Amino acid sequence: MEEEMDTLYNATYWAEFSYRGYGISEDGTLFCEQLPHVVSSGGMWEMRLLQSKGLTFWEYSLPVTEAVIVSVLCLWQLFYFLLKKLRLPVPKFTSMMLAGAALSQTSLLPDDWTIKQIFFPDDLRPKVPDTIGGFAFVLYWFLEGVKMDVGMVKKTGSKVVVTGMVTVLFPIFAANMVFGKLRETGGKYLTGVEYRTILFMQSISAFTGISRLIRDLQINHSEFGRIVLSTAMVADVTGFGVNLVALVAWSDWRVSSMQGVGLVGFVIVMICVVRPAMFWVIRRTPEERPVKECFIYIIMILAFGSFYYLKRLRMFPAVGPFILGLCVPHGPPLGSALVQKFESFNSGILLPLFLFFPMLQIDGPWLVDQIGQLRHYDGQMYEALTIIVVVFVAKIIFTTIPPLLAKMPLTDSFVMALILSNKGIVELCYFMYSVEARALQAKSFTTMALMILISSTILPVTVHYLYDSSKRFISFQKRNLMTLKLGSELRFVLCIHKADHIAGMINLLEKSFPLEDSSIICYVLHLVELVGLDNPLFISHQMQTAEPGSRSYSNNVLIAFDSFKHYWKSVTLELFTSVSNPKYMHQEIYSLALDKQASFIMLPFHRIWSLDQTTVVSDDVVRRNTNINILRQAPCSVGIFVHRQNLISSQKSKHSFKVCAIFVGGKDDREALALGRQMMRNQNVSLTVLKLVPETMAGMTTGWDQMLDTAEVKEVLRNNNTTAGAQHSFVEFVEETVKDGSDTSTLLLSIANSFDLFVVGRSAGIGTDVTSALTEWTDFHELGVIGDLLISEDFPRRASVLVVQQQQNVACR
């Protein structure tokens, strides 16, 4: 009986040709899986049955898969960490490739080494980690399609279209002239198919790879980044067209016609059946509710089915899930649900496996030999490098010319050409497919994988040092309220994160500023978190109108401020929506403030209270980080508005709106007074200037800052008699001497219920006795010590608070 059991196990599990759960079909062409699976050990019972013929720990698929996933994850994260420490902005994709390249030469180790048994087992059949990597490959292309906004193509200008077409077509023409008939006959080491494949892949600019690159370089939210994205999208469409033409030209007409019909039919089904079905799913999903899981699963099945369909057509199979992804309506609820559910897990855990295993195929000894032959201008690598260099140089030259003719600076044009010439995951995927399709030799793949690794390492670093996106936010002019003369044009950028901010911002404008005066210009910017899209959106509601049936990100904001604009017709109001990553929202605000030459940016505080002002209902840390980022480098003055009460609309109110400007001294306090001076133009505003003087400095006026403080206070008091409608606008000056922070707290607590709004500089009292012993109790440093004190739990919740910071980012020409 024991012998029969031993024979049975040998036949089903451990036979030479069914090793590790895989078998080969009789004709030797297909891989098939032997059942039952050899996934993990049976424990002590297996060893008792098999005795000396049991398997070692690494001969089970589950432990090997776990070991590979952990090893790859730790190794690529280590490379990414080391490169970050060296301050090299290398994309994560490159770190994943480096992990594979680092372990590629373990194949030269003795066969009994464990590491070789894990990564280079002694059979040639596919393994579970490879299969998981293939799963990630399909999922990656599908998600890239979901995040891509096809509508960008319609919005691109003629210059972008010309640049996108030139960057693909002209390098192909130049290379065809250089290599001539070699594209058909081949060279000494490369076949004609290899010539055409390398030439084409070096000429294209893949949108998915470039969008990931500029996102890693943190320039995708700049105007320059948007231009590059639009150009890459046009280039990608152009490259796809060239590929179809080449397919018809170099394939048998029967095969190419079958592929063409199959592809056209697939696209028609996607557009006419699948996309309407997805809109039907969206209509069935209640507002602000998630999409049902069953619909998500059906879409994922379609993604893998489309991959298999394109593979059966003998076309690049990634096109299938990519086209399906394009058909998914971007943004919430469907597109964002797919991205949120799969993106992080796929890109962080699964995709590294797909990028890791191809790099294991790098043949180190062969590379050393080929590098040695380069000095003799010979070898397969030399022949491939010749194509790469010719196409790269042609691509750089031809891509730089159109932007230059469009008045783009030379450096930016060159950087744009470098970005569009970068090679990454798309090209690596295609070369892997070419090896499987026998259009590329394995040795040629080694060369191309190495070139992609070098390109994705050097080009991002070069771009980082040539293009500094932060410089474009530097203002060479003083843009603050102190430089504005009374009655001159006042330009605001007013930011809205949530619907809860709308009422407070509108009421602040109505109650505090002279809206009857036509000198107020307000730019309202609704900030929406980017989810389910690969590229940010910036919508001007003056320039663009919503298409029928389209989803608006800013309905509530548009309705509220449209009503506001109809009532206050003298106010110039422009509405914008920015859909962007929260990490870069401050850049969108910078850009708008610079473009509109604004003097003041108004931000809502990140915390929202309940109607009775006793409970915090929202505490958004992401919005707080956005506010802090804006304060660091804003091109004009900034105010953070803490809305603490339901203000009554000014047109219905007959009592005056009481504002208290707290003044200790310093540039932020002077800016707060300048804002109070603008508010005085509103006839219903009653302004009180409360000057807090440390007891140790009472009666002293020394130093330039103190002289400026005194001059600003006098300017406010002088304007009290010259403001139009002065019989309604009233200014009171109060000076109080305080010993320490406790004195300051007691004084402010005593007057907390006497005012509707407190205006204070962010740096007010910092470093003086006015705030001594209060600094260490500050929770929100973006509000300053006194601003934080005014919104603390110890204070009555009647008055709102506006914290002002004067322009920080001013450069000399």
Keywords summarizing the entry:
single chain, 813 residues, alpha/beta, eleven-stranded mixed β-sheet, 15 strands, transmembrane helix, transport
Q: Overview of this structure, please?
A:
The chain starts with a helix and ends in an 8-residue tail after the last strand. An eleven-stranded mixed beta sheet has the order 5-6-4-3-7-10-15-14-11-12-13, with helices on both faces. The protein has a two-stranded antiparallel ribbon with strand order 1-2. The protein has a two-stranded antiparallel ribbon with strand order 8-9. The relative contact order is 0.08. The chain is built from 29 helices and 15 strands. It has 813 residues and is of the alpha/beta class. InterPro entries: Cation/H_exchanger_TM, CHX17_2nd, CHX17_C, CPA2_transporter, Na+/solute_symporter_sf. It is found in: Membrane. Residues 76-464 form the Cation/H+ exchanger transmembrane domain.
Strand order of the biggest β-sheet = 5-6-4-3-7-10-15-14-11-12-13
**What is the CA-atom radius of gyration, in angstroms?**
33 Å
Overall pLDDT level: 78
> Strand tally, please?
15
Helix count, per DSSP?
29
Strand content bin? 5-15%
The global form is: elongated
Span from first to last CA?
94 Å
Give the % helix: 40-55%
Poorly predicted regions are: 1-25, 27-36, 543-551, 647-653, 723-728
Alpha-beta content class: alpha/beta
Largest sheet: 11 strands, mixed
Domain Cation/H(+) antiporter C-terminal: 657-807
Pfam families: CHX17_2nd (PF23256), CHX17_C (PF23259), Na_H_Exchanger (PF00999)
Subcellular location: Membrane
Protein name: Cation/H(+) antiporter 5-like
